[in-house]
Amino acid sequence: MNPILEIIIIGCLVATTAAIPGNFLILRNMAMMSDAISHSVFLGIVLMFFSIKTLHSPLLIVAATATGLFTVVLTEALISSKKMKKDAAIGLIFPLFFAIAIILISQFAGNIHLDQDAAILGEIAFAPFNRFIVGGIDFGPIGMWIMGFILIINTSFIWTCYKELKLATFDPALAASMKLSPKLMHYGLMFCVSITCVGAFDIVGSILIVALIITPPATAYLLTRNLNIMIILSIIIGCTCAILGTILALAMDGSISGAMCTVAGVLFLLAFLFSPSHGIIQKFYIQKQQKLKFSALLLTIQCFNHQNSNAFEYSFENLIDHMRWSESFAKKVLSYALEKNYILLKNNHYKLTSYGIEVAKQTISAS
Amino acid sequence: MTLIIDYPVIIGVVGATLIGITSGIVSCYCVLKEQSLLGDAIAHAALPGICIAFLLSFNKNPLLLFLGAFVAGIIGTVLINAIIQKSLIKQDTALGVILSVFFGFGTLLLTMIQKIPTARQTGLDTYLFGSAASMLTSDLMLMGVLSLGIVAVTLLLWKEIKGYIFDCNFLKTQGFSKKNIELTLIFLTVLTIIIGLQTVGVILMSALIIAPATGAKLWQKKLGPMMILSIIFSTSSGILGVFVSSSVDRLPTGPVIVTIISAIVFISLFFSPHGLVIQWVQSQYNKRSIRLETILTHLYTLAKTHDDLSHPHDIQTLTALGGAPALSLLQKLEKEGLIYCHKNNSWGLTDAGVSKATQLLHRES
């Protein structure tokens, strides 16, 4: 198979595997936990590597996943001791684990290939070189098989516990009262995150996997309020990152995983700005419209109350003087009111239409 | 392992001291404001700034790299705040997104820089793990000036900062601008992190923002002493870390410093006056004294049905009133002269015991 195609397939697998538990992490306000787990997993790999002296053993994955879960347990113990806040507890454990791992490597690893840079940055470009060969038959890159296996684990956990997870996420008290054990769901999810970080460790590295766990679901969260759609969207966004990222990296001759994160960031920014339901541009537009509409109603009331006053009250200057509107805004309001048929404009003086009087009366009585 | 004191070590010690002072101060703000993970995010977000500064200038002038990192850090923080305020996304998600995306972008740029032939090995990747040994006197000068600025701002704005941390609304009623103080603190935090990056690196910098104040908070509840203690913790672990890593071959400075400061936090967690050990001892003592008092009041209640208040009762009767008292507890009371042993397993109140029991019952009612 073409190595670039293989890279894209592995990238999509990683992105999908990461996005599935990522949705729940975000909804449960535990996004930073993935950062903590992905760093401490490193210690598990290093420790196991020193005891079995090889980087190609399933035991490595077991040990690393266990370290990830241990981090969660330790962090929660710190939080429940009430001696420190959640953020401090998260931020205390993982740098320590990571530091210990680096000290161990620097002292004992010697020339063995367990590179610090590789741990942090990862390099998906090397993934196609590690082949899965059984009896002389090439089954493709080994990373693809590992990620595929982890994807099955994650999907089956989320699939079987979907409604329990959903309930434990949105209403933990109700879930507990229905004996659905939010604690079990919590650790199940943490297990998924840990094993994802472990699997993706030598493919995209420990920090960039965080980008794939958090960013696509966060982008999806900006676009929808439905959990099913959110999960599907996050997978689509994740795969888009993988594909576009690979293309970008090839074009710029840089790190593929770095480019994937960059694309993820750009997609997030686009959703943040232009999301039809929650984007800030949309919000800005709605606010403008509301302000204009409200001002036009205010104008009708002003005219209605001053129906028999002097001519100045109907003039354009009055709006600037009494309503404290800027000239351009006053013009905008007038044209909006004209368009809505609230007022008529006669030689620089405006007058309420009968419809305008009706609107003014309605607005006054409504308030 | 021999202690070597030479030029790089002295430079390292001075650097570690400066970082210790600044991170000790800023740590207090971040931890008390419950924003300690912001440090982690800023440290990561600085990477693309460093790379862009290098790509634009093609030289490794520390001032330029500082500037790049600073601008990127500020942009990252502003973006995090914008995401939290303008959308429904929560703080931790916003932190995670900015942290990882900025770092990913930085990685992309870093790999591109490494492929430029003229760039040679720029040493930009020391920013990942930090290296106290690579610091130059010019780096120190810059760090010194910035640290001095941070200390000066803290002293000048002491009461405003205090107000901002503990009672924002009060601060506003006093006519101070919350926004300005918030911006000042973000400014200080970003500066501190950028100063520390070169020594401890991107990943471990967050520990220096979290650990000192977390440890200090367990000893001191007042901001002033807490901050001084926090500075002492981070400075001493910095200096110790430089010494240890310079005396052992191939030992990176950053991880050693982080391990030492984490050890300090864990020792504080268990053994400080507010720590877990003292708390456990206290709760055991409280439980014991409550059980002792219960025996006395129970014996008194039983004896009240007799004319003689010192009438002894079998231990079985006490069991019926709720749990058999342990023999050691009874013996302790006997030693204190509050009860006496009548026969085997039969105990009665002494005069002192009666007055103590009435005292206890009066306190309860």
Number of strands of chain B: 3
Greatest contact between two chains = A-B, 61 and 62 residues
**Overall geometry of chain A:** elongated
The major beta sheet of chain B can be summarized as: 3 strands, antiparallel
What is the arithmetic mean of pLDDT of chain B? 84
Euclidean distance between termini CA atoms of chain B: 67 Å
- What is the end-to-end distance of chain A? 71 Å
The biggest sheet of chain A amounts to: 2 strands, antiparallel
- The average pLDDT score of chain A comes to 85
How many H/I helical runs of chain B? 15
Which overall shape of chain B is indicated by the principal axes computed on the Cα atoms? elongated
Q: How much helix, percentage-wise, in residues of chain B?
A: over 70%
Structural class of the helix and strand makeup of chain A?
A: mainly alpha
Contiguous low-pLDDT stretches of chain B (5 residues minimum) are none
Structural class of chain B: mainly alpha
Offer a few descriptive terms.
A: 367 residues; mainly alpha; two-stranded antiparallel sheet; 75% helix; B: 365 residues; three-stranded antiparallel β-sheet; 3 strands; 76% helix; elongated
Structure description:
The complex is a heterodimer of chains A (367) and B (365). Chain A is 75% helix and 5% strand. Chain A is mainly α and 367 residues long. A two-stranded antiparallel ribbon of chain A has the order 1-2. In chain A, a hairpin with a 2-residue loop joins strand 3 and strand 4 (349-352). In chain A, helix 1 (3-27) crosses helix 10 (208-223). The longest helix of chain A has 26 residues, at 227-252. With 365 residues, chain B is mainly alpha-helical. In chain B, strands 1-3-2 form a 3-stranded antiparallel sheet. Chain B starts with 6 loop residues before the first helix and ends with a helix. At the A-B interface, helix 2, helix 4, helix 5, helix 10 and helix 12 of A face helix 2, helix 4, helix 9 and helix 11 of B.
